[in-house]
Amino acid sequence: MPPTLPPPSTLLPPLICGTATFNDQYNPDPYALPTTAIVHEALSLGVRAFDTSPYYGPAEDLLGAALNTPFVHENFPRRDYFLLTKVGRITGDEFDYSASWVRHSVQRSLERLHTNYLDVVYCHDVEFASPEEVLTAVTELRRIRDETGVIKYIGISGYPVTTLCDLAHMILDESGEPLDVVMSYANFTLQNTRLASVALPNLKAAGVKVVPNASVLGMGLLRRKGVPIGGTGDFHPSPKELRAAIQAASDWSDKQDIKDNRLEKVAIRWALENWIHEGAGVGSSGDPASGIPWTRERIDKYGGNKLGVSVMGVSNVEELRETMRVWRSILDGLENGEKTAIDSGRGTDERGWSLNRQKQVQTLATGIRNVLGKWVDYSWPSPPPGFVNQRSAPSVPAPLPTPDASPDPLPKRSTIKDSSDMRRLSQI
Q1: b or e along 304-340 (b: 16 or more beta carbons within 10 Å of the residue's beta carbon)?
Q2: pTM for this one?
Q3: pLDDT of amino acid 7
Q4: Does 31 qualify as catalytic in the annotation?
């Protein structure tokens, strides 16, 4: 991170809207999703960051189309929200961490997202690449950052927490500069908490500023109806024995005399609420989307400390609204939460309700983890045994079709404002 940039822990919002669901892994037809409505509602509810990736099928295009609309341009200046994307992963079995592909991928993301800069760029699923390849990609991203300014912060993402820790230390040792952000997924959930127990001390020691926790349902594993089956079929890497244990835990939770005892409801609130505290040391003090009219508020005004950062994906507006209801209830239960509830217009009783719900969720979570037994903190192998990168000669892919599900888009327009912007982009 250049000394001229503030730490990402002072800027990134504690709640980020993920777009992995804008993909046929999670949904049969991502173009049929109300993606523009989701993005617009998220912004209206105070969400100020979106996480995406070229690997997520049409997600970058869908997100970019939703942001390139009169509603967004007239109400939400680009400086008021954050865009996080990735490089390196192309398909399920294709990866390219070369400097040339990193440059191509960054330029393509800028175009798809209709922006002249990216707030965070991760190397995607780093466990599938060698340490040397990851270092090459990080070095190229930093060159782009330093020479053009189109990238603000740089990080890595992946599943195995030990790999993330090892690479964070390696990059610090080799370059003398720590990573800004390291994102893990499915590692702080009701089933697996290794992000807190194993990764956090190591990532802090490696100088990492922010550690977002993504996929609090374990890529859809922690649901009453089981893992999602999208257009690509059953993609989930969990073994059948773990799925059976999850189903038994879900059945147990359904039998408890506590309202809203469905597994996914318990899992979402438990992970969001606990990561706020567990991840605070590598959290952020950006706008928390508390419902208070947005004035670039800071956590130190409403709650005291940094909050652990979570990434939540949804597939429809109703899921988004429910997620925001839960999130704001959690904020009401924090220190000074009563003031937050009053200032946001939710009322004086909300803090008491939040604290009571916290106890209910903790009771259910303890029982669920007891049922899971030996599967608590289990992690599946990634990459899977026998994995071989199928990448051959790099090629520039054809553009994805314009999504029909994104109403009222503006014509594609350049975000390059002057000749200095043109020079910066040409240097990528």
Answers
A1: eebbbbbbbbbbbeeebeebbebbbbbbbbbebbbeb
A2: 0.90
A3: 94
A4: no
